[in-house]
Amino acid sequence: MTERVVSGKVQAEDAGLDFSLRPRKLEEYIGQDKAKESLAIAMEAARQRNEPLDHVLLYGPPGLGKTTLAYIIANEMGVGVKVTSGPAIERAGDMAAIVSNLQTHDVFFIDEVHRLSRVVEEVLYSVMEDFTLSWVVGKGLAARNINLKVPPFTLIGATTRYAMVSPPLRDRFTHIHRLDFYDSTALAAIIRRSTRILNVPTEEGGVQELAVRARGTPRVANRLLKRVRDYAQVRANGMITKQVALEALAQMEVDQLGLDDVDHKLLRAIIEKFDGGPVGLETIAAAISEEADTVMDVYEPYLLQLGFLERTPRGRAATRLAYEHLGIPYNRGRPTTQGPLL
Length: 342
Ligand code: ADE
Known about the structure:
alpha/beta; 342 residues; 5-stranded parallel sheet; two-stranded antiparallel ribbon
């Protein structure tokens, strides 16, 4: 896959940047007001009781700040944080080793928690409930159940696929928050904060151009800012004005709504190859040489949010708005059919 400047996914270039720009306190975290308020109350209550915060599940498209929130929670609670991801833990024993090595009240962050294997996930069930590891040693008649206490801790799970988190795991989280795309006012505030940290001179017009093209995603906003900063330094006098931002974004082929050539390819494939749809996810993915999972997690959410795509019972369809955005005449009325969502 080509590296997209507007992808919500983490890319190598984000690693250092992400850390310096990442807010460390809840009060510095912009947007997601509902999740923020609920978590602030829960953290205050847990601190007063001298208990760990109850387990938290965060879900939503990539790049909206799930990992950032996990670090903020650890920081606000004054505890350590251990980070892993669902596919990285292969054996039940690995999970048992991690949880038994946590310090009291630590945050244990599992990204892509929907990708834990069933056996690994099962280790978590009793641990999440009462901080007891239940372990079967031996086989057949010699099998014995061992119960081992682990330090009380907070599990924070993050996922882009809420529906794929198994119900028994989902039920063990007390706090479940969906992170939504940010509006351009929140994104502009995030960009202004980043320009102060990075010490980049900017005009408000430049900030606004970045904010409206950041696909509702702070990670994209910060990545665009970094690229436009380079452009301003090399092709102008270093100041990100509206004009400099426009030129840089044109050079990066990011359009007025933040769509890039992959989004255009995807929409054009549906419109030109499949008569506007509906067409199945796998077929679209094959047409643009991408994985179906990538299309679903990375490209689709923002196109759905813009109202350019719709999920119909028989697959995805491009809407009138998508045709208009691409400058393709819209001359069709589609019948709708009842059935399961594909
Ligand atoms: N960087 C990434 N997400 C952020 C947020 N929600 N607020 C401030 N800075 C951020």
